[in-house]
Design goal:
Number of strands: 44
Strand content: 35-45%
Number of helices: 10
Radius of gyration: 30 Å
Helix content: under 10%
Structural class: mainly beta
Oligomer: single chain
Distance between the termini: 59 Å
Number of domains: 5
Length: 661
């Protein structure tokens, strides 16, 4: 499909590019002196459908409204409303000024009579017919596009001009998928009850009768369709196990004016002849981290997936559900969070098992967060805490907790408050009694007891040092230990899950003289040695040897060999990409294709950040070849010259540890 645009210089006319443009060497001027009045400038364009298969769209319409002046607040008038023959060239007209551009694929009704933006906003689509249509409607609007000249087009909010304007079409519907894979036994507070649910049906509540072509709030008085009912047939052959998958359930976009009327699933079953009903709300807020929203909207072009994993009560939202909100296609534009104070978290119970590593809860908010601990709990020996934001906007991130070295007693829950502005959420921090085993009767150095590289005997390392852990040439001490009855690869109690005991933990088992994980307060070459119940000495780590005891912790995370810079630098050309990294300091560079692929696979884990918001990133292989990594080509191996000539985002990498020697 190719489009052509026309410039009329007497009216200071300019170019609109849709998707990908090639000017064939023809340039246009933005002079307004009347020269070349009425002259047509053909521009060949090859649009791509980013959202889905091109075969899904059989018809495209472009509607343009323009101020035709440099006043962004001036009234916009219709300058173009034309169907585009997808097999033929097309001629469109636009003007210098501020333009609203609408592209509609498979229009739901005849839009040839549209004369104003208000006309478009009033277009409604019948839900039953739109969801059963052979081809779905596609739509995208770009508002207040500032067109100054052929090569100066500024999308709203952009400070750098583009010479072509990419329009990424989105479906105007969403889809839902529900998967059951669980034991049918009801559990309460984690304890099995011996009672089982027989799942029978699932209903979808509050499906609106209409949706709008242009996103708009739904008026409740418009009404809802009858509930959609799905029979639940068990696909599992295991006893007391239920498995069922809905496939794709298409939904209209639904932006309720009041969350009381949010869309919901009502799941019905019976146990002991009693009907059990479980109601699950559906929308962006079911996973506010993925959706960047706490509204209960059904947003177009999104995929809402529910994985039901357990029955945790007798009804009304007593199901353990893992929910996910993602872009249906590769498009998933983050939603800016605005409005009054709010705070959303991905879980409210945090298991704080480790002394060495944080257990995290993710949050989304619109103001910086703070943590209020119970009055009897202090940061230090009792509990450690960190707040890590995804970026400088401080609108999302995670809070981490780990146990303090003095906290060895019984199982306990700390009720903690997370606050953002006037909003707050209570978190239950679950801590556990230490499990300490007498292990090392053969005396070793402190570094050996820790499982560290021997250099740790001369340097302060802290409770855990990943560099010294990784550089150890052999497994020793608590790093090597695991109980005889346990498989060494067991993720909970196997090799790597144990650490050197603290002072308090050694005292709790009345141990003979044994190394402690704590180092001396002022001497980096010393660590503490405890004995009996309440006795403590210190000694040099490198030339003194003692026995050791090991405490159950969690296995150290796998870390990448490199670190990644903290934020995206967008809209960068190939010529400037490398300098973005070198300006960060020694060792920083563009990632190789192998490193980019690793980041795409492991973002948010293995010591890597999780704030990658761009569709494409610059990279550079060891042979000096520039590459571009995308979701569909994460190692950049399919990079084309067209991509190399474009603008992409930069994230830089650097070796995590300085090479020895």
């Amino acid at each position: 499909m190719r489009l052509k645009l026309v410039y009329i210089y007497s009216f200071v006319v300019t170019l609109l590019y849709l998707l990908t443009a090639c000017t064939d060497g023809i340039e246009a001027s933005s002079d307004s002196n009347g020269q070349g009045e009425g002259k047509e400038i053909p521009v060949s364009i090859m649009p791509k459908l980013v959202a889905g298969d091109e075969n899904e769209v059989s018809q495209l319409r472009v509607i343009i409204f323009s101020t035709r002046t440099s006043n962004p607040y001036g009234p916009k008038v219709l300058v173009s409303n034309q169907l585009i023959d997808i097999n033929e060239d097309h001629v469109a007209i636009t003007y210098i000024g501020y333009n609203d551009i609408y592209v509609i694929g498979n229009e739901p009704v005849d839009l040839s009579g549209i004369n104003s933006p208000e006309d478009l906003k009033n277009i409604q689509m019948n839900t039953e017919s739109s969801l059963s249509a052979s081809k779905f409607v596609f739509f995208r609007q770009l508002l207040n596009v500032n067109v100054r000249s052929k090569n100066e087009i500024y999308p709203e909010g952009a400070s750098v001009p583009v010479s072509k304007l990419e329009i990424k079409l989105q479906r105007v519907i969403a889809k839902l998928s529900v998967k059951f894979d669980l034991s049918t036994e009801i559990c309460e507070n984690g304890n099995p009850t011996g009672e089982y649910v027989n799942f029978e049906s699932m209903e979808l509540l509050r499906t609106p009768k209409y949706s709008s072509l242009v996103p708009n709030k739904y008026k409740i008085e418009e009404g809802f369709l009858d509930n959609r009912v799905f029979s639940l047939g068990n696909g599992s052959t295991e006893q007391n196990h239920f498995a069922w998958s809905s496939g794709d359930i298409y939904l209209p976009e639904y932006l309720p004016m009041d969350e009381i009327y949010r869309m919901a699933l009502r799941i019905k079953g019976t146990s002991r002849g009693i009907t059990r009903i479980y109601t699950l709300p559906i929308g962006d807020a079911m996973n506010s981290i993925d959706s960047h929203s706490t509204e209960w909207n059904i947003t177009r072009n999104r995929h809402y997936s529910l994985n039901i994993k357990a029955v945790t009560g007798y009804g009304e939202e007593s199901l353990e559900v893992k929910s996910n909100v993602s872009g249906w296609s590769e498009i998933n534009v983050p939603i800016e969070i605005t409005g009054a104070s709010f705070l959303a978290v991905n879980k409210k119970t945090v298991e704080v098992k480790s002394l060495r590593f944080y257990s995290y809860v993710r949050f989304a908010c619109n103001a910086p967060v703070e943590v209020k601990l119970p009055d009897e709990v202090t940061i230090g020996n009792q509990l450690q805490m960190t707040i890590e934001y995804d970026d400088a906007n401080q609108k999302s991130g995670r809070v981490g907790f780990r146990r303090g070295n003095w906290n060895t007693g019984n199982d306990i829950i700390y009720v903690t408050t997370l606050k953002s502005g006037t909003a707050s959420v209570e978190l239950n921090l679950q801590l556990y009694r230490s499990e300490t085993i007498r292990v090392g009767n053969n005396p070793v150095t402190w570094a050996e007891a820790m499982g560290y590289w021997e250099e740790a005997n001369w340097i302060r390392t802290g409770i855990y040092n990943d560099e010294f852990y990784k550089r150890a040439t052999q497994e020793t001490g608590c790093r090597k230990y695991y109980p005889e009855e346990v498989n060494e690869n067991d993720a909970i109690r196997g090799k790597g899950c144990w650490r050197l005991a603290t002072i308090r933990e050694n005292w709790a088992i009345n141990s003979a003289e044994a190394w402690c994980i704590e180092e001396h307060d002022t001497n980096d070459r010393k660590a503490y040695v405890s004995y009996g119940s309440g006795h403590l000495i210190d000694n040099y780590k490198e030339n003194k040897q003692y026995r050791y005891n090991c405490t159950l912790d969690v296995r150290p995370p796998e870390l990448s060999d490199f670190i990644v810079s903290s934020s995206d630098v967008t809209n960068v050309t190939k010529g400037n990409a490398s300098s973005i990294c070198t300006n960060l300091g020694s060792g920083w560079r563009l990632p190789t294709g192998k490193e980019m692929n690793y980041v795409f696979l492991n973002a948010g884990t293995n010591g890597l950040p999780n704030n990658f918001f761009s569709d494409s990133y610059w990279g550079k292989n060891e042979d000096g070849t520039f590459i571009v990594a995308t979701m569909s080509d994460p190692d950049g191996s399919a990079t084309t010259d067209e991509l190399r000539n474009g603008r992409h985002t930069v994230r830089c990498v650097k070796l995590r540890y300085t090479p020895i020697g």
